[in-house]
Amino acid sequence: MAKENFFTRLFSFFKKKPEDDKLLEKIKVLESTLATYQKRGTNDGAQIEQLSKENADSKQQIQLYKEQIAAIEKKLEETKKIQFSGLEIGEEYLALKADFDAKEKELKKLEKDIDDLQEEVEELQDDKKEQKKKFEREIEQKIEEFHKVLIQLTDEKESLAAKVKDLETDKKLKSDSISFVNNILNAKDADSKDYRYIFGKTTEICNYIQNEVVDVFKNILNRPVTDFAANLYKWRNTELKTWLKDKKVIAIVGEFSSGKTSLVNKILNPNNDPKIIELPTSSKETTAIPTYIEYANDFYSHFVAPNGELKRIDTATFQMTKKEILDQVNVLSLIDTFVLGYKNPYIQNISILDTPGFGSNNKKLIEKTVASIKEASAVFWLIDANTGEMNQSSINTIKEHLKGTELYIILNKCDTKSDRDLASLEAKVRSTVQQQGITVKQFLRFSTKNDMYRVQLMNVINALNVQTNSNYIAAVKSLLDSSLKRKEEEYKGIQQQISNLIYNKDRKQNEIRNNTKSAVDACRNLGVTFNEHQNSLLGFEYGDKYYKMKYEDKERYDRNVVRITEIVNRFSSQNNELLNIENQITTLAKQTEELKADKKRIEQATANLSRLITEYSNKR
User: What does the pLDDT look like over 549-564, one tens digit per residue?
Assistant: First the structure.
């Protein structure tokens, strides 16, 4: 029984092995810990490597002990099958016991070593944690510093990239500007007409009319001359600009970005055909030069140079006329106006003028815009419905430059407002123009998003009854001819009056001569009477002294005195009448001389104007 209990306890001891399991678990923890620290860094390498080596040796020793214990267990298993004698069992037991005690002692020593190693590992772990925190703090600080530097460098990089992009953009812009200027300077003539000749001759005709003909109308014909300058300007522009001749010139006017060019594009391209070249409309491509659009069989793009010559440019060059390019060059010194031709049935017999906005600070551009508007038959002034009113700048421009011009106001971009808002805006604008004394022919609405408005606008344009100015010079000459004819008739009439007065003068002089003869006869009769009574003369003293005369002689004497008195009175009247006739003759003679001078001046003006017109017409 005692033997059975011994072996039972012995086998139980070797079967249970809780310490071995704990030891193995500690070893695994150590291996895991060491592996983790080995992965995190090698700065503690020497110490950890030593511990790893010692741990490996311990593991090897433990493995050896495990093998020895396994051998003992195996041997014990074998002994269970054998009948042991008490001596054999005792000796074997003692041997096994001694060996077991030695192994157990060695295991305890190893456990202690492992515990010591564990403590060192834990200390190292604590140090590692502290170093890790320190390292992490340093890393975070470095990362923060690096992040700041990175942000700074990124900003500098982005700034440099932006500068490079700006430089590249500026370089391309300058390159495009140079190319644009070269194309303009090298542009070919667009027409066979001698524009320089037309320019010179129309200038000569206008100057002659302004300096000579206007003086004739003002000082000789007493006719108003206030409209001469404007009409001459229109006529000359019509002659120089064939796209204006015999056409309705419609000016589209308004502030910058009010939608003028978009409106014109809607007229030119109502169906948004991508093949049709449109005028640039973005905020950076706002029309900077007055642009005329007329009907043509095919699209063309021309420009009028400052010297009046019409030049031809290709489509690509015209599409380079963006604000950013035009700002690079003194474009007004190169281009006076653009002239475009579109094959569009809606603009036959119409010339559309798309003007720069009046918001520009460029005085030269404003002057050019104003000059262009003077060529217009009617002006359509656009108001952006989103602005809500007509500003003072627009009011001043209309009052100063559009007097006498047929004015229409268009509320543009009306798709952005309700009908109620549009009605309120129109009422507000109507009130403003009425208060300012501005006459508006009609108020219209427009939106590029609704073709109905385009149709309504074109109906208004087509219904315009506009007088063209093409025959103005011929009308001036015709007026001179009719004035000369009237002067000649007036001259003949005065000559006839002078002839009649001369006849009356001769007749009055005959009457005076006859009257004088009668006076002489009456005086002679008185003399005879005095002679017959000269012996009766008593003297000339005062008192009762007198002429003695017979009664019948006294009657004859009285008759002669009355006759002489009548003759004298009649003579005075006739003399006054003669003087009046002579004064009339003198006045009419003076008028005749003036008429002759006036007639000569008119004849000269008519002849010179006829010569200039003939020379101009023959050359053309």
Answer: 566 666 777 777 777 7
